[in-house]
Structure formats: C-alpha cells, structure tokens
Amino acid sequence: MTDTGVSPGFDVAFERARTVGTTSAHHLNAAGAALPTTGVVEAVVGHLRREQRDGGYEASAAVAGRIGELYAGIARLVGAEPDEVALFDSATTGLRVLVDALRLTGPGRLLVSRSTYVSHALHLLTLVRERGLELVVLPCDATGGIDLEELERLLREGRGDTVCVAHVPTSSGLVEPVAAVGALARRHGARFLLDATQSVGQLAVDVDEIGCDALVTTGRKFLRAPRGTAFGIVRRGLIADLAPSAPDVRGADWTSDLDWSLAPSARRFETWESSVACRLGLAAAVDELLERGMAATERHLVAQGERLRGDLAAVPGVTVQDPPSSRSAIVTFTVAGLPADRVNRRLASDGVRTVSVPASHGQWDLGRRGVPAVVRASTHVYNDDADLDALVQAVARLAGQAAS
Ligand SMILES: Cc1ncc(COP(=O)(O)O)c(C=O)c1O
C-alpha cells in the first residue's frame, strides 16, 4: 500500500496523543462527527463545572471575553470580519435562519447543486411548494461538479436567482467549483449561499476568494468541536437587507409596544440561549486548527483521501463511488453483493468506524445516480496509516467473502 505522504512539519503522533478516541477504534467518521482533542473536552467540562459552582449566567459573564475571541478566530479562519459571524447550534438551523431571512417568494428561482444536503433540500422544497418559487437542480459536468456553462446560461436569464451549493456533499468526496460559482453569481447579480458543513476545517475556505454572500458550517465535523455548535458568515453588504423571520432578544431590541430594532451585525440571526460550554469547546477547536495550520491540514487530509481511493479501488469487488473531482478526505464506496449498511456494521465489529449514507440523505446526488447507499470513510489529522490499512484490509476480507 502507498504511503499517505504526510506533509512535513505535520505531527500525526501529537494529534493522536491528544485524541483519546484514537485508542479505542479506527475512527474514520470525521464527516459524521470527528474526534475532539482533550483540550476541547476540557474547555467544555471546565465550564460546566463553573456553571455548577457559580450559576449559568454568572459563569457566562466570566467567559464573555473568550467568546469574543471565538468570533475573531472564526473570522480569521474563513477570511471574514468578526461582526459577520453568527453562532448557531447546527448547520441546519443556520441554513434555515438565513434562507428564511432572504424572504424568497415566487417568481424567484432557486438554483441548487446536486450536492445539497437532505435537511436543507427539504426546507427549500417546502418553500417551493408553499411560495411558488421555481427550483432547478443544476446538472453536473464530466467532473461530477456543477456544470458551470449551464449555470451561466441560467443566470443570464436574470430570473431573481438564489444559488445554493454544498461545497463538499455528505454523499461523496466531491469538491464543488465554488469560486467559479461565486464569480458567476456576482457577475449576474444572484445571491450565493454556501453550505460549507463538510469543508470548513478540512479545506481552506476563504469567503472573499469564494465570493459567497453567506456561508454556514457545523462544529462537530472537520472542526473537531463539540456537537451542538455551528456558525454562519453573512457578508456585511447583505446583513442590513436580511431580517430574521423570528427575531430573538439576543439580536433584537424591543423598543416600544409595536417596534423593535435589529443588531447591525450578524448577531441579529442568533438566539439568546445556547450552550456556552460547547461554544468554549468550539473556541478551543478553532484555536487548535489555526495553530496546526489550515494549509497543512488540507494537504494531509487530501493525501489520505487520495490514498484510500486508490487502495480501495484496487480491491476486487469494491467500487469507489466518488466522482472524478473528489479532492477531499471523504471517500465513498460500495462492495458487490453487500448492502452498504451491512458493510458498515461488519466494519464496526472489526473496530473500523464508517457510516452508510442512504440515497434519502441526498436524492439529487445518490438518488439521481441510481446508487441506493454508499459506505463513507472520512479521515482526520489523528488518523495514521494503520487506520487506513485496517479499513482496506477489512473491506478486502468482506469483499472476498461476498464473492465466494
Ligand atoms: C453537506 C451537509 N450539509 C449540512 C449538514 C447538516 O449539518 P447539521 O447536522 O449540523 O445540521 C450535513 C450533515 O451531515 C452535511 O453533510
């Protein structure tokens, strides 16, 4: 098997040493929820203890400065300004709040990528059904990513378009050509909302380079933060035009009987109640990522994905299901004669953690490709060659048994 080609200066042993979960199994499920470091867990648990001792509001006041640093850290990570950051409890919440704030109505049009995630898609489909919007699922080209010529042809029609794209989908290692999408959206005056749930933390994401109007991501995946954390970026030019459909005391001031004013920053999209402990965990995770370096992290993860795709493709009976433009740490495959959920369960009993992704999580992708489900393996900086070998060997055993 080939070597992962870990980038110089990148210390997998150090990451493993501060990641307790690496000792119990081969965790290849970063795209579901990555393993957090000891530092992240300590930040959460430490704050829960503080709440136990001092009271929730008092503990929150004591860490207000650290939460302020979180906004600054997120802004640095994605090339935004701190006042463009809104904290959420999941990517789905963030996408819902921002889409609702766009107040989309017919005869406007939604141009969506095949990579769109189920929960986001179901929200958009609800709007289409109830508000008379038109929806176009963008075709893909030979790379598997959005067909940019077709996107430009549609945008030229100038039909009040909003473009929604997942940078990396839940259902494959595809990386969409988001900077090209952003350039086209700008040129034709369309809004561009990016679902970066599977990309922030694994690929360098810069909102200026991409040219999106808003972005949403989650904490528990490639950021290695606790569950129940997420954030969005809304570019300054757009904030004043977007009003949350349900203003909350966190981002709105109830000024008189019938009136209120909204915070001038992206805080207008937030809610008062949140897990401060988990947000401190997110702050620790963002700091650790910035220290490790996004470029080195991306190099490592892309190299691991490439190695896994090559090794799995060489196993008789295994089909790698990723489209050609897959350049990420997410690798999807099927085993002839074995449903994906059975492969997943058998791998778990061999101490290898993957997930099976059914077409119902991405009908515009897996459904349209006619693939009922895939097994998804996804690596992170704490995975070493032994983890990758364990997966490939276990899959080879299963494929051999299925064939005999
Ligand atoms: C591409 C993509 N977008 C959005 C989501 C939803 O994220 P969350 O569970 O934080 O709402 C997921 C979850 O897997 C995803 O893969």
UniProtKB/TrEMBL annotation:
Q: Which organism is it from?
A: Nocardioides mangrovi
A Gene Ontology molecular-function term? Answer: transaminase activity
**Residue ranges occupied by any Aminotransferase class V domain in the UniProt entry:** 40-391
Provide the protein name: Aminotransferase class V-fold PLP-dependent enzyme
Keyword vocabulary terms for this entry:
Aminotransferase, Transferase
Keyword ATP-binding in record: no
